[in-house]
Amino acid sequence: MPLAARGLAQLDACKGMFGEDAARRTAALLKRIRRARFGTAAELIHLHETLLFLRAYPQSAEVVRLCDAILFEYGRRLRPLAPEDLAEFEYSEISGIAGTGLTTNFSYAFTKSLAERHSHNLRIAWERFEHVDRLALVLADLIPEAREAWAVGRHADWRKRLEAASQGNREGVIPWLLERVRPEVYDLLEIPLRWELRNSDASRSRARLPRPSIFYHKSPLLARRDISFAAELAAPPIRVTKLAKTRAHKIPGVIIDASAVRYRELYGFEYPDEAHVYHADLGRGTDLYFFGVPRRRRLPSREYCAGMYCKNGVPIGYVEVMWTGGAMEVGFNLYYTFRQGETAWLYARLLKVFHQQFGVETFTIDPYQLGHENEEAIESGAFWFYAKLGFRSQSKRVRDGVEREEQRMATDPNYRTPARTLRKLAEAPLIYRHAGSSKRNGK
Quick one: pLDDT band at residue 154, thresholds 50, 70, 90? Predict the structure, then answer.
């Protein structure tokens, strides 16, 4: 096995090792890897994701230091790659690595937020602009000289006109345009943006939310069998605090960056209510930041809240919830890199916070989250994740199917539910009802 491949395999194995010996072994391997060269895009992607996992679930302070040292200089490792190799880093599963970039059309809300922090690294990707002609009517209203060309139907270089009109704006073309068009108009333009991450703290390699201490894993990670939903929901309340104004403004920006580099937008991240940003320390080095939307953005029939959770300062996923009365629909997404972590424990702690804050007793999972028209959920086995935590289908046909699958599993320990069966099981929502009672506590 080549040296690079052997080093990657050894580092992968460190994710399941704990204790002082494991910490020393991981640190020694990281020191060798820091000096090693990895020549292919596949190797560099694999290394990055393994480092990020170990940074989130470290065995020691030395492991944290070394992971950060490698990740913070990761852009340097990518410099020798050819353009076609760098393109491999722009797929949604692994986008956002330092030294790379991405191209997509963000919403007005996301673009405005990104431009406030990263305008010097943002540009219009004219070569990918499929609907550049849509600029004609917009610029005809904004630039008197452009109106004549638009009115008589003559060909015009709309890129040239836009860049000339915005020349006096120090921030560039994008902020100039955002100041002058309505959000709904901007969204209809579908302007592709190119975001060069370089060594930005917005990259997945460097994104960190500060916390007072790091939780070091000296024993095996908590597995699903270690978790009781009922016990977690009945446990003492998790401390929740409202953030002060300065920090409450900063946190949504970090969350938007972490979401945008993965090509993901969420309604709550587009319109965060910065007057009500909350923090919950879930334990084991895990922080949850959550918030609703301003009054004018509220949903017509349900309450709404969104949030992001971080493990030892590293963003590892997001959550979106909607509820009315005592019933809440939960959208839970753990980033691919961290799915070998303490997923069941994390999910139980999230629901504990929502249970105590909003007084909900019933949690439901939409079929999309389970795999209905969502192949990512099928591949990750999302249905069984929730079913084994105690969620039950609202469909008798699905419950009967679950019983048949459980019988097959009991008969054959190697049996795995086929994708076609998972799609059938995902056709109806899952539900969990908490047997206890609680008093509304918080907002």
Answer: low
Start-to-end CA distance of the chain, whole Å, equals 57
Bridge partners for 277 per DSSP? 291
CA distances to 70, 307, 326, 353 from 358, rounded to whole Å, are 41, 15, 8, 8
Which amino acid, one-letter code, is at 328?
M
Predicted confidence (pLDDT) at residue 439 exceeds the cutoff of 60: no
Confirm whether pTM is higher than 0.70: yes
Side chain identity at 353, as an amino acid letter?
V
Evaluate whether 51 touches 70 at the Cβ level (below 8 Å). yes
| Cβ contact 289:277 at 8 Å | yes
Calculate mean pLDDT across residues 299-305: 97
- Locus of tokens 């073309």: 173
Output DSSP code: residue 183. Answer: H
- Going through 139-258 in order, the beta strands assigned E by DSSP cover 193-196, 240-242
DSSP 39-61: -SHHHHHHHHHHHHHHHHS-SSH
- 405: Cβ contacts below 8 Å, ≥ 6 apart: 417, 421, 425
Label the pairing between strands 430-433 and 362-365: antiparallel
- Contacts (Cβ under 8 Å, ≥6 apart) of 122: 114, 115, 172, 174, 193, 194, 195
Cα–Cα distance, 435 to 231 (Å, whole number): 11
Residue bearing tokens 């939409």? 366
Confidence label for 4 from pLDDT (cuts 50, 70 and 90): confident
| Whether 367 contacts 427, CB under 8 Å | yes
Burial class (CB in 10 A: 0-12, 13-18, 19+), 122: buried
Query: Distance between CA 346 and CA 282 in Å, rounded?
Result: 8
Contact present, 388 and 226 (Cβ < 8 Å): no
All residues at 6 or more sequence positions from 371 whose CB lies less than 8 Å from its CB, including other chains: 377, 378, 382, 383, 422, 423, 425, 426
Q: Buried b / exposed e across 137-167, counting CB within 10 Å, b at 16+?
A: ebbbebbeebeebbeeeeebebeebbeebbe
Closest by CA position to 208, among listed 257, 146, 158 = 257
Amino acid at 198: R
Q: What is the mean pLDDT of residues 184-209?
A: 96
Give the pLDDT confidence score for residue 165 in this predicted structure: 84
| Two tokens, residue 30 | 């990281």
